[in-house]
Amino acid sequence: MMIKDKQQVKKSYIGVHQQIEAEMIKVTKTELEKLKTSYRQLIKEMNSAKEKYKEAVAKDDHWLRTLAEELMQTQQMLVNKEEAVLELEKRIEEAAKTCEKKSDIVLLLSQKQTLEELKQSVQQLRCTEAKFTAQKELLEQKVQENDGKEPPPVVNYEEDARSVTSMERKERLSRFESIRHSIAGIIRSPKSALGSSFCDTIPVLEKPLAEQDWYHGAIPRIEAQDLLKQQGDFLVRESHGKPGEYVLSVFSDGQRRHFIIQYVDNMYRFEGTGFSNIPQLIDHHYTTKQVITKKSGVILLNPIPKDKKWILNHEDVTLGELLGKGNFGEVFKGVLKDKTAVAVKTCKEDLPQELKIKFLQEAKILKQYDHPNIVKLIGVCTQRQPIYIIMELVPGGDFLTFLRKRKDDIKLKQLVKFSLDVASGMAYLESKNCIHRDLAARNCLVGENNVLKISDFGMSRQEDGGVYSSSGLKQIPIKWTAPEALNYGRYSSESDVWSFGILLWETFSLGVCPYPGMTNQQAREQVERGYRMSAPQHCPEEIFKIMMKCWDYKPENRPKFSELQKELAVIKKKIT
Prior knowledge:
This protein is an alpha+beta fold. The chain has four domains: 163 residues, Orthogonal Bundle (Helix Hairpins), CATH 1.10.287; 96 residues, SHC Adaptor Protein (2-Layer Sandwich), CATH 3.30.505; 79 residues, 2-Layer Sandwich (Phosphorylase Kinase, domain 1); 176 residues, Transferase(Phosphotransferase), domain 1 (Orthogonal Bundle), CATH 1.10.510. Helices cover 49% and strands 13% of the residues. A five-stranded antiparallel β-sheet has the order 7-8-9-11-10, covered by helices on one side. A four-stranded mixed β-sheet has the order 3-2-1-6, covered by helices on one side. It is flat. Keywords: ATP-binding, Coiled coil, Kinase, Magnesium, Metal-binding, Nucleotide-binding, Phosphoprotein, SH2 domain, Transferase, Tyrosine-protein kinase.
C-alpha cells in the first residue's frame, strides 16, 4: 500500500514539474521575443548614431578645408597690404623732402591719411589671420584625435546572440554626444571657445576670473537663476552668504543647479581633477564635456556672458565724500576714470542675503528705463564685495531738504513744475507696469535747472499685471502708503497715485511732515475713518482738488498718472 502511495506521489510530482516547466518555457519565449524586438531597435538606433557621427566628421573636414582656404586668402591680402604700406611710406618720405607748394602739402596729407587707413586695414587683417589660425589649430586637433577612429562599434544581430544591456547603449550614445558637442561647439561658437578677441595678446585662460565673460561677480542666486534658461546654460558667481566662495550655476534637465567650487590644497575642483585657478577648471569641463559630478551628470554647454554695458570694476571709481546713509549701506560722491562725477551706493557686506537682493533690485529696475525725470543708472560693481551701484550725481540733493531750505525763495510756478516733473516720471513708470511703492519728497532729487528726478527704487517692483502683493509691515512708510497696501499688501500704480497725493501735500506745504501732530498709527486710523488732510496754506484750489482725487479710498476711482501729467501741465500754463 505504501509503495503504491509513493508511486502516486512521484507521478503527481512529475506532472506538476512538467507543467511548471512548460509554463516557464512559454514565459521565457515571450520575454525572449520582447528582448529580440528591443535589441533590433537598439541596433537601428546605433546604426543611425553611426551615420550621424560620420556626417559630423565629414562636416568637420569640410569646415577645416574652407577655413584653410580663407586663411590663405587672408594671408595673401595681408602680404599685399603690408607691401602697399611700405611703398606708400617710401613715397611719403620722398615727397616730404621736396614738398613746397600748398597743393603738394595737401597731397602729402592725403597720402598720410591713406597710409593710416592702410595700417588700420593691416591690423584688422592680422586679427582675422590670428582668428582663423586659432580656429584651424583647434579643428586640426579635433580631426587628429578622431583620425582613423571608427565610431562606437555596432554588433550585427545575425553574428552575435549575446544580450546588450541598456547601460552599454547609454555609454555608446554618451560617447557620440560628447564628440558631437566638442566639434559642434567650435563650429557653432568659436568666439566662446577661443575668446572674445583674437587680437588680444593675453590668452583667455590666463585672464583673471573677473575678466571672464561667464563670471558675474557677487550677483544674487535668484538673479543668476533668471539668466539660466536652456539646457547647459552656465555662469560662475561669488557666494553672497560666504564672500570669497565661488559657485557654478547651471541649467540642467529643467532645474537650476548650484555647485560650490571646492578649494583644497591650493587647487580648485568639483570632485575630479584639480586646477590652479577657476578659469582653467571651467574651461576643462566646458571643452571636454566632463560631467561636473557623477551623481548630477551635469554638462556645461552654453556660457552666459555678463551684461558688459552695466558692469564696472571697483577700480573704475574713486570714492569721495560721504553723502548719506541708507538702509543697505552708505552713499558716497565718486569720480569715474573719465572724471565723471557720480553717486555711489554701497552695500554692507554683512547684510542678510535677502537684503542684498533688495539692494540690487534698484539697479535691475533702472537698467530698463531712460527718462529725464528718473535718476539714471550708470553701472554696477559686482565683481567682488562690497557691491556698488553707480548712479548719476544729482547736484541739488533730496527734494524734501531742498523745500525746507529754500521755502522762502520758491515761487508757485516752480512748485507746480516740480509736481509736473514727478507726474511725468511716474506716468512713464506706469506705462512700464513699474510700481515704485515708496514715492515721497525724500526720494526725489533736484537736478540741474531744477529738474526733479524720481529716485530710490529699492522697494520697486515690475509686475506684468501691474499689481504686486506683499505681506508684513517692515519698513513701510505708513503716512505715504495707500489703505489697500497697508491692509492687504496690494500695491499698484493706483497706490502710487495715493502716495503722489501725499507728495503734492509735502510740496505745497514746503516740506511739512504729512498728518502733522499724528503718529503713524493715528494717521492710519484717521484715514480709515474718512479723514483727509486740509489744503496747505497758499495751495491753489486746483492742486488741492487733485490731492483729494488721489486720496479716493477706492483705487479704481483714482486718476492715472498720464491724466495727472496733462492736468498739471494745464495748471502750469495758467500761472504767470
